[in-house]
Write a structure and sequence with these properties.
By secondary structure, this protein is mainly α. The chain has twelve helices and no strands.
């Protein structure tokens, strides 16, 4: 039977949209005082510490790491934390936070063709139309940058944000194929992998971070505690209560909130193509996930 979301589930999914949609704004604030590697490292390390502490408090234990599980944890850790966090932090030095948030909207659309080849979810005609619309939106978003490759950092930064979305998409497929493991334990271990990779890189390239003012420092702490650690727990709670299909509503919120926060808090100028890209991507997502959305909202 399809789980029926209650008011707590709806509140939780809206909160997740706000948290993850606001993450890009917080990253921009942290970059006002810290380098991109430091921002990425702080996020993974603080998140790992918090989730490891939670594991201890709730009695969760690290399972026996078979070769298959160990490789899954390592690859998911690289592709869901270390690499995309660095790409986003570096890219957001040169592009608006709203652009980064819009880029993440392409994740569900990237997952569909990957799932066609690497899982048991075929890409049918309806999904193909949805993916095509979504990628048209992505091209509208980064089109001007592609035409200017080699003429500054901004086009490369746009590609870095899209590259981060692709990393998350591949990590999603790997997570589906991962051997059975508690989701909180998996989240903690993947963040540990990211921290182990990024800490020596940070110390080599940017050194030990020194306090750089109240706003960037608070932003750095918030990144590790809220969108990384707390949001993971909220996500697990919602999936257990209302199901994974209900969680797809978060994907529709993130780009909208990222644009709102970018324009409202950071006073970012949002060109017309951002709104066109948003409309195309959200329409593509709705078409590709139509039956899941109908089942969630109407119960059949």
């Amino acid at each position: 039977m399809v789980p029926q979301p209650d008011i707590r589930d709806w509140s939780g999914v809206i909160a997740l949209g706000l948290i993850w949609g606001g993450t890009f704004m917080v990253v921009s604030m942290a970059l006002e005082g810290y380098g991109p590697i430091t921002v990425a490292t702080a996020r993974t390390t603080l998140g790992a510490v918090m989730l490891l502490a939670l594991m201890g408090l709730t009695g969760r234990r690290i399972p026996s790491l078979t070769p298959s599980l160990a490789w899954s944890v390592i690859l998911i850790g690289i592709l869901s934390t270390a690499l995309p966090f660095v790409l986003l932090s570096w890219g957001q030095q040169y592009v608006p936070s709203a652009f980064a948030g819009l880029s993440m909207a392409a994740i569900p659309l990237m997952v569909l063709p990957l799932a066609h080849f690497f899982s048991d979810e075929p890409l049918n005609a309806r999904r193909f139309v949805g993916v095509s619309l979504g990628f048209t939106g992505a091209l509208v978003l980064i089109g001007p940058g592609l035409a200017q490759l080699g003429s500054g950092a901004e086009p490369l930064a746009q590609l870095a944000c899209i590259g981060a979305a692709f990393c998350y998409s591949v990590a999603s497929i790997l997570t589906r194929r991962c051997p059975p493991i508690d989701p909180v334990v998996l989240a903690a271990l993947t963040l540990v992998v990211g921290a182990v990779i990024l800490l020596p890189i940070m110390l080599t390239t940017e050194g030990v971070p020194a306090p750089q003012g109240l706003r960037p420092t608070l932003a750095l702490i918030v990144l590790g505690l809220v969108p990384t650690a707390f949001a993971t727990l909220l996500r697990v709670s919602i999936i257990r209560s209302a199901g994974s299909v209900f969680m797809t509503l978060v994907n529709y919120q993130v780009p909208v909130w990222s644009m709102i926060f970018g324009a409202w808090i950071l006073s970012e100028a949002l060109p017309l193509r951002f709104y066109i890209a948003l409309a195309l991507i959200l329409t593509g997502m709705a078409i590709s996930q139509w039956f899941s959305l109908r089942r969630m909202l109407l119960g059949y």
